[in-house]
Design goal:
This protein is α/β, with parallel strands linked by helices. 43% of the residues lie in helices and 15% in strands. It has 2 domains: 10-168, Rossmann fold; 178-219.
Length: 222
């Protein structure tokens, strides 16, 4: 894996923020925006050399709200493995899907690429759950869950990993499903027009980095 180079690289892997559901699967919920803002504040003093980002909309939206003040390289190397399982089968068939073997090869190729080209730099990647899980598996054979808006980190020195954390959450985790539950409730109780208006309100609250409950309450406001 490490080849002949002496690696001195720091690698940050960010899973995109909480996404929507069904047809909105590739758009961040207000909670996802809130998570991304919190992660961005955590990262703001890190002097990144290069940023890579998946081409999926939810990853690019996460990158936007991280607000890292550095241009990113959008690359299909970091794309999702497949459309989420709850999405209509017709949409799934239209989108590119990797087999687990193809994903494994793509992750390995990307690791080798950054070790060769950024072996002495700080690299940040905005990508997806299964990509990060596969990368972690290849490096340390761990199957730890990677939640939305989490940070996974590896620091390499020589041919060893000298520091790591997997799926670290830097935003408050109280009531983890609070906004999701309010979103589902709002979808059932509001008209389509009212739901769109409440989503806009929730987005504005999220962008201000306020408490989760404020964002959730905005969903049910008429």
């Amino acid at each position: 894996m490490f080849g002949g180079k002496e690696i001195k690289m720091k690698l940050y892997l960010i899973r995109h923020g909480q996404r929507g559901f069904f047809y909105d699967y590739d758009t961040l919920l207000p909670e996802g925006i809130w998570q991304s803002i919190k992660v961005g504040k955590y990262l703001k003093n890190i002097k990144l050399n290069v940023i890579y980002c998946s081409p999926q909309k939810r990853a690019k939206e996460t990158l936007k709200y991280l607000n890292l003040k550095k241009k990113a390289i959008i690359t299909s190397r970091l794309r999702q493995q497949a459309v989420p399982g709850e999405v209509d089968k017709a949409i799934q068939l239209l989108k590119k899907r990797d087999t687990p073997e193809q994903l494994s090869k793509r992750v390995k190729a990307f690791l080798l690429y950054i070790m060769k080209n950024h072996h002495n730099e700080i690299v940040l990647c905005v990508t997806h759950k299964l990509f990060i899980k596969e990368l972690v598996k290849q490096l340390i054979n761990s199957d730890k869950n990677i939640v939305s808006g989490s940070i996974t980190y590896f620091e390499f020195k020589g041919k060893k990993i000298i520091k790591k954390y997997i799926g670290k959450v830097v935003y408050p985790k109280n009531n983890p499903n609070l906004i999701k539950n309010y979103f589902i409730k709002a979808s059932k109780t509001l008209t389509k027009k009212q739901l769109e208006q409440s989503k806009k309100k929730a987005l504005e609250v999220a962008k201000k980095g306020k408490d989760k409950r404020d964002i959730a309450n905005a969903y049910l406001s008429k």
